Amino acid sequence: MRICLKAWSMMPILAFAGVCGAPSVHANDSAAGTSARHAHEAYTSAINSNNLESLAAMLTDDVVFLSPNEPAVIGKAAVRAWSAEYLKAFRIHWDKTVKDFTVAGDWAFERYSYKQNDKPAGGGVSVTDTGKGLIVYHRDSGGKWRVARDAWNSDLPLPAK
């Protein structure tokens, strides 16, 4: 039952964003939308900075990462630990292309595609991936857009075991 409740926890937000007729705008349609769209650029820059503090500053306290072939990473402390290991192992670069960006009040929803290049910190062959994802941003009380949810998956097949 607890898992079911967690899965449904985003439903009110999604309903608010479109199904219930809340005003929503595409990012280029208003000042709020333009501000939210800058969140995409700030988040991508934080990722590509390879700086844990820059990345953590972009996250809500209850952030959730849903990365390919791994369990959900829930909460800022857990995402911070996950990211620290990732940044320790690789020098990363992500190109994220916005496919759709919608703002509904203090929430924004982005669908994107990505190309990722991870260079092993100790040298070796780079890992390249392509895929798609969804990000949910939340505007905090200070007006800053932060990542509340980031879910992505690879277009590449799973490696053979």
Describe this protein with a few key phrases.
161 residues; alpha+beta; Nuclear Transport Factor 2, Chain: A; 7-stranded mixed beta sheet; disordered N terminus
Give a quick summary of the entry:
This protein is α+β, with helices and mostly antiparallel strands and 161 residues long. Helix content is 33%, strand content 40%.
Helix and strand element order: HHEHHEEHEEEE
Treating each run of at least 4 consecutive H or I residues as one helix, how many helices?
A: 5
Q: Could you say what the CATH architecture is? A: Roll
- Briefly note the structural class of the backbone: alpha+beta
For the largest beta-sheet, the strand count, sense and barrel status come to: 7 strands, mixed
What is the CA-based Rg, rounded? 16 Å
Number of strands: 7
Residue-averaged pLDDT? 85
CATH class: Alpha Beta
Indicate the CATH topology.
Nuclear Transport Factor 2, Chain: A
Which overall shape is indicated by the principal axes computed on the Cα atoms?
A: globular
How is the largest sheet built, in terms of strand order?
1-4-5-6-7-2-3
Give the number of domains: 1
Unreliable spans: 1-25
Q: End-to-end span in angstroms?
A: 33 Å
Estimate what percentage of residues fall within beta strands: 35-45%
